[in-house]
Amino acid sequence: MAKAELTILALSMFAMLFSVANGQAAGGITALDPKTNKEAEELGRFAVGEHNKKGNQVEFVQVVQAAQQGTKYFLRIEGLDKGQKKKFSSVVQVQSGKKEMLNFN
Question: Do the record's keywords include Disulfide bond (predicted)?
Fold first, then answer.
């Protein structure tokens, strides 16, 4: 899938996250509280680490929003990029204990 398609997919998933009622929306998307969900924080750190393997130098600060649909996690991450605070979107898939970053922008 092209990067533009993944970006559109990620943004669509975040738009659906805002329509979540009672923690779950149609389509099986479940909002996660990034302040209490340790897995969301771990996956945020993982996503930043994978992004940095490509020559980037983002410093993880925190996960500010998180949602899960099946094996995919949709994360909104706050990080420092060259000393400036920025927000990034990432999609991470977890299957059989193996993590794979599908998108980061």
Answer: no
Fold of the CATH domain 3-17+30-104? Nuclear Transport Factor 2; Chain: A, (3.10.450)
Determine the residue type at 27: G
Q: Looking at residues 84-102, what average pLDDT do you find?
A: 97
What is the C-alpha separation between 1 and 75, in angstroms, rounded? Answer: 19
Which of these, 66, 72, 77, 63, lies nearest to 17 by C-alpha position? 66
Distance CA 41, CA 26 (A): 25
Tokens (6 digits) for 1: 């899938």
Instruction: Supply the pLDDT for residue 99.
Output: 98
For the record, the structure tokens of 45 come out as 């750190």
Helix, strand or coil, per DSSP, at residue 17: helix
Per residue in 36-74, pLDDT tens? 999 999 999 999 999 999 999 999 999 999 999 999 999
Region of residue 55 (phi > 0: left; psi between -120 and 50: alpha; otherwise: beta)? left
